[in-house]
Amino acid sequence: PVEPSLSITTTVADAVAELLDELPRAGRITFRRLTADLADRIEVIIRFLAVLELYKQGAVEIDQPERLGDIEVAWTAGDAFDADAIRKAFAAFQAAKDRLEYERFEMLLAVRAELTAEQRLRRRILNLSERLTSRIEATGIGASGALSIGLTRVS
Question: pLDDT digit string (tens) for 77-93?
Fold first, then answer.
């Protein structure tokens, strides 16, 4: 089976920014309505994480009146709520995350180069071993005889 490629084009920071614009106007809205225009499941998950972040920041209340019913999200932050501070914090977080991803990428390239050098060395050793084995076989002595000859020459 062919698995679809997962290409995430939005971040939790993006979703928080969208919700910071939308929720104060909406006041109270269901999560279903907040995600009605989203096509991919991953986008819904990201939007849910953004709602949880706003809940953690004290900007919204979350309620689910009925078991397995719609989740209601209510904007509860007053005028003193600093949405710009949250946007800046998420932007700083995203920048730090991008730096870490770049550093991780650089480390992976270095490890790959190191492994490639090790693999080349192993290939050389294997080639030498195969050439040595073929020479030994060509003499008709056999491996144990070649080993004893090699030991006697050293002695």
Answer: 877 777 788 878 888 88
CA distance linking residue 101 with residue 136, whole number of Å: 52
Token reading at 55: 């809940």
Instruction: Answer whether 0.70 is exceeded by the pTM.
Output: no
Angle between helices 12-26 and 83-139 (to 10 degrees): 160
Output DSSP code: residue 7. -
Q: CA-to-CA distance for 134 and 80, rounded, in angstroms?
A: 83
Report how far residue 135's alpha carbon sits from residue 97's, in angstroms, rounded to the nearest whole number: 56
Question: CA 20, CA 37: separation in Å to the nearest integer?
Answer: 17
Q: Is 29 helix (H, G, I), strand (E, B) or coil?
A: strand
* DSSP code at position 64: -
